[in-house]
Design brief:
388 residues, Ribosomal Protein S5, domain 2, Alpha-Beta Plaits, 2 domains, six-stranded mixed beta sheet, four-stranded antiparallel beta sheet, binds alpha-D-galactopyranose
């Protein structure tokens, strides 16, 4: 059990018992990609894969972090923290403490042992999982009251984690991942409405209908701190400014033709078309789930992938092959998930075909001479919380 191993890792490293163990899930986004920073809709689920943190308060302002993945110990003082001072994996953890303090929450020194079980760079939000595990641990240890069952306080904690990622780590991400990790529910998809700040838990009875979600991690590492993600975000912000609105959320799919005509020809039109149609696809996916029309959900997945590939241009050959192979071998639909440029794709598959679809994808990668992808079924898991 990871909980036991992170607990004993803490004892071995720091020579004392931790005060507890907390964990937080990675996520897959079912649909609604590159919509969060456009104030739009998204539909993530929490993963059974989680980041674990064993923690104990210290009497001073020192933070020590040990990672089971790197066996590295990072030591810093809360007094010296500022964006860019800490880099690499530990910045996500330390950044949360910095963000809490920056917003007036009383934190002090802490020892942390970390065991991240969300694959890194796979587009499954390993960084948000780490941030949110540290966040719930800090909230409880320092009695900040942000981690309990009150969803509004959890929303606040998610915003603080996103602030840490944007300002401390300097990754210009949109906030979906932290909301998913802190507020997801088992066997539910979360309909996030970023502009309205609301969350609706949508039942996801896939197993009852003989269906499953297959994750296909291409093993092509994506990095959100590189320029491509930021450039897509800037393009959307520029388009909104040109169109005189706060965000692209202000447009409905029905307005699309007239909106596009107001923009110069070229990639900017494609970017806007993706965002506006993708937000519409989220609404239609939720309607289809409620109507138990999974064939339609599959078609919407397919359309989302095509839009991300052709209009938003954030896919890559490995994601396209995974998606195509999954469809050809029996998936109802498939799409890349997360930021893109590598990372993972998902497919909605009949449960009994899951091993065959996974084998077909592995075979297609081998035939292309690429590194083997990692394929596994997932079910929507519970949110960040205390384990021990
Ligand atoms: C990454 C970001 C999210 C979101 C997705 C794309 O996962 O962290 O905020 O923008 O990409 O939907």
């Amino acid at each position: 059990m990871v909980v036991g191993s992170v607990h004993s890792g803490f004892r071995a490293q720091f020579g004392r018992q931790p005060e507890g163990v907390w964990s937080a899930p990675g996520r897959v986004n079912l649909i609604g990609e590159h919509t969060d920073y456009n104030q739009g809709l998204a539909l993530p689920i929490g993963l059974p894969l989680r980041a674990f943190v064993a923690a104990r308060r210290r009497p001073d302002r020192t933070v020590r972090l040990w990672s089971a993945q790197t066996s590295e110990v990072v030591t810093c003082s809360l007094d010296d923290l500022a964006p860019r001072i800490v880099t690499g994996w530990s910045a996500y953890a330390v950044g949360v403490l910095w963000a809490l303090e920056h917003h007036g929450f009383g934190v002090h020194g802490v020892d942390l042992a970390i065991d991240g079980r969300v694959p890194l760079g796979a587009g499954l939000s390993s960084s948000a999982a780490l941030e949110c595990a540290v966040a719930v641990a800090a909230s409880e240890l320092f009695a900040l009251g942000l981690h309990g069952k009150d969803d509004a306080r959890r929303a606040e904690l998610a915003a603080l984690c996103a602030f840490a990622e944007n300002v401390f780590v300097r990754a210009p991400t949109g906030g979906m991942d932290q909301l998913a990790s802190l507020r997801c529910q088992a066997d539910r998809a979360m309909l996030l409405d970023i502009r309205e700040g609301t969350v609706e838990q949508v039942p996801l009875p896939l197993a009852d209908h003989g269906l499953a979600i297959l994750v296909m991690d291409t093993q092509v590492e994506h990095a959100l701190v590189d320029g491509q993600y930021a450039s897509r975000r800037q393009a959307c912000e520029r388009a909104a400014a040109t169109l005189g609105v706060d965000s692209l959320r202000e447009f409905d799919a029905a307005d699309l033709d007239s909106v596009l005509r107001r923009l110069p020809e070229g990639p900017i039109r494609q970017r806007v078309r993706h965002v506006v149609t993708e937000i519409d696809r989220v609404t239609r996916t939720v309607e289809s789930l409620r109507a138990v029309d999974f064939a339609q959900v599959g078609k919407l997945f397919d359309a989302s992938h095509e839009s991300l590939r052709d209009d938003f241009e954030v896919s890559c050959p490995e994601l396209d092959l995974a998606v195509q192979t999954a469809r050809d071998s029996g998936a109802l639909g498939a799409r890349m998930t997360g930021g893109g440029f590598g990372g993972s794709a998902i497919a909605l598959v009949p449960g009994h075909l899951l091993p065959d679809v996974a084998d077909a994808v592995v075979g297609a990668f081998a035939a292309a001479g690429w590194r083997a992808p990692s394929c596994f079924g997932v079910r929507a898991g519970p949110p960040a919380g205390r384990d021990l």
